[in-house]
Amino acid sequence: MRAFIIFLSRAAWAQRLVTHWGIARRAASRFIAGESGEEAIRVIQHLNEAGILATLDHLGENTSTAAEARQATDEILQMLDRIRASGVRSNMSIKLSQIGLLLDAGLCQDNLQRILQKARQTQNFIRIDMEDSSLTEKTLACLRWARTQGFENVGIVLQSYLHRSQNDIQELITEGVPVRLVKGAYREPAEIAYPDKADVDQAFDRLAGLLIAGAKQHANPTANENGLVPPIPAIATHDPKRIQTARDLQVQYGLPKQAIEFQMLYGIRRDLQEALVGAGFPVRVYVPYGTHWYPYFMRRLAERPANMWFFISNFFRR
Ligand SMILES: Cc1cc2nc3c(=O)[nH]c(=O)nc-3n(C[C@H](O)[C@H](O)[C@H](O)COP(=O)(O)OP(=O)(O)OC[C@H]3O[C@@H](n4cnc5c(N)ncnc54)[C@H](O)[C@@H]3O)c2cc1C
Q: How many CB atoms lie within 10 A of CB 64?
């Protein structure tokens, strides 16, 4: 089922079908903060009132022309200004395929540079999301290029389902790069990724341990004062067992609570988000907005077949 939904997330015909269903738009709205920037800022204001930080994502990926990539970049720049003007506690997450990675590395670097310059001006931070494995190497190369240009306001995502992540995480820790650890949301072949959930979970705990130990080596940097620039380890999961393991590791390594951050997706496990805030941990919610919600929505359905049944049963109940 998971593989089939991920296949559909990439099929243009399925996108045309699904995005025209009113019921799909309503189902997607559980995971998406709205189509406009204003709606997204309002959602973040509510999260901030509950003590939750945010990372904003202007939905879009696999851009197919240079003009579209520049337009997506402009939207991100405007949003950084809007975050600054509204004073919300949110940084931004971006996908390099949205700003031209599939078209031309130079174009992508130019767009990334514009984004990081604006983030620097507005004292903000950019997290580069990790896409499917065809882009892992290119994404890491772009991150490293940005850091050699003197940009330290940028971090990355690693996926515990990939075998290579063990090496990647060790190198990135040495380089002092903030890392968001996730399980991974794409469909990957067994030669490069663990097919079994138990192995992905075990790898997640192991990599969380490396990340937390790594933060210690860097003298436990914490988030900056306004919470926009995160600490080195961001543990991004809704899995209570993974969260408990990370909490145990945080205690074991003597890491202050403020030197680690938990991250979850908008619309998922709000109870857990609030419990962690209550326990004194920084919590950041990933807030996607925009009109290009289809692939993001399909990946959320793939993660939990129950979401798919809920969606289908609503469709037949119309
Ligand atoms: C902040 C953040 C950023 C992310 N960025 C990336 C990225 O850049 N690249 C990437 O590949 N992946 C990314 N992901 C997605 C990630 O890889 C997983 O696919 C996703 O988090 C589900 O895995 P899980 O860790 O929650 O564990 P799971 O074992 O999948 O789920 C644990 C529990 O969480 C709840 N849950 C999980 N997913 C859902 C859902 N869709 N709907 C309802 N309940 C759910 C359920 O209660 C489930 O039992 C990100 C996730 C987060 C939280």
A: 11
